[in-house]
Amino acid sequence: MELIDKIKAIAPEAVCSETGEAVITLKVDDFRRVAEMLRADKEAPMDYLRDIVGMDWGEKGLGALYYLESSQTYERVALKISTLDRENAFLPSVCDLWKTAEIKEREVFDFFGIRFLNNPDMRRLFLREDWKGYPLRKDYDMNSNPLNMENEENADVTDEYFLKPDGTICGRKNIVFDQKDFVVNIGPQHPSTHGVLRLRTSLEGETISKVDPICGYIHRGIEKMNESLTYPQTLALTDRLDYLSAHQNRHALCMCIEQAMGLEIPERVQYIRTIMDELQRIDSHLLFYSCLVMDMGGLTPFFYGFREREMILDIFEETTGGRLIQNYNVIGGVQADLHPDFQKKVKEFIVHLRSVIKDYHDIFTGNVIATTRLKGVGLLSKEDAISLGATGGTGRASGWANDVRKHHPYAMYDKVDFKEILYTEGDSFARYMVRMDEIMESCHIIEQLIDNIPEGEFRVKTKPIIKLPEGNYSASVETSRGEFDVFLESHGDKSPYRLHYRSTGLPLVHALDTVCRGNKIADLIAIGGTLDYVIPDIDR
């Protein structure tokens, strides 16, 4: 039976959109039953909640789009629900079906003011608890929050809302930390949180009993800014998300816009984008290695990783003009053609990297201190990885085959041979090894492409003002840290009505509580390092 037929058997009034990608609109009363059916489906259980995208459709109501995927068949579906009550907007929670929904629903509440029934934690996520209004609503007053220099109070009590049998909504208070908890702040100025992330950590002796991430210290309102920019202007903001996946982030946005335009991309561009994405992956994984070892007290390997990474940045700079921030991909292709020495230098780099990677393993991988601190530490089961949406190397270290390049191929990934690196231990050492093995796999991908780049255009000409057809569109890529998605709703204007990015790092930070409980406080640094999140990507 087709998925839409299964849904209509439960919700006869379900409607599938006729513009853009297929989105199934449901009545709020039907939503929970459909969600439960999809989650429990025996043929293709939708056990991976990719994202929840909050929406303000004006007079048509406030609501959300739910993007689901089966980890077994990789089939995808998108659901849409809304409520007309803007003053008291409530939707049913699905955090009991997918663990990642707990933090994703908090994000929707933070920006749209939609409260989710039976979600135990309805605190703000990125903004201050005393923030007035909900910034991603279309009627938000931009002058309603003058600069506030007062210290922010910790929100140790949160609200949970639920339906009583008579249909009325009630609330109760839940305690985050009480007076008996011994809470330590790690960050936001701690070098090993890798940016301005604050982890409120309660301890029993030296053992972690709870981790509560506090996000938003570098929140810049990128998704709000997108609503007033033209499509070419939105590209610059992707480079500032996960800056170690800058090529890949921008690739996703360009791909989404190009698909909506029906634009055919030259084969030369597809080769160039794939090679750049894989160089970026090596760049990121080398920095991962360097910083993880530095966090654990090793200095020499830090210089090893930076030595090889500089070679990649030199190659980038010659062609793109940038080292950290990459503004190379554009709608229709790339900004400029490859530097004449690009192919020669890439091939020389790969030969060099293969010759020195043994040194990386000799000095750290087999080191007794490294193996003692990483093996069996920070366990994450495959089921939890999927439910938490912990994609990328973190999920693959737990045995979850989630590589977008394999299961939803784009660019040249269906034309090259490569292995999806999987481990089953689910510990910190497995997460480390996945990324070290992926460095070599990326070299293998590049070697298959570098001598076969076809001649042709490096960019298709497009109009300076682009208007996309009405509808919902999305694109997925495998960044250095996992699945990065672009979700776009167009109303036919020159600016997106809504442009949302799936943060790769938000589910990883949310997973910290699950992964760290029962481990020692000293293990938190190594566990956080192997999860490999980047803070601007989380905060956006």
Automatic annotation (TrEMBL):
Subcellular location(s) of the protein: Cell inner membrane; Cell membrane
Keywords: Cell membrane, Membrane, Multifunctional enzyme, NAD, Oxidoreductase, Quinone, Translocase, Transport
Predominant location category: membrane
A Gene Ontology molecular function term of the record: NADH dehydrogenase (quinone) (non-electrogenic) activity
Topology of the protein relative to the lipid bilayer: Peripheral membrane protein
Keyword Membrane found: yes
Pfam families: Complex1_30kDa, Complex1_49kDa
Name of this protein: NADH-quinone oxidoreductase subunit D
Organism: Phocaeicola acetigenes
Source organism phylogeny: Bacteria, Pseudomonadati, Bacteroidota, Bacteroidia, Bacteroidales
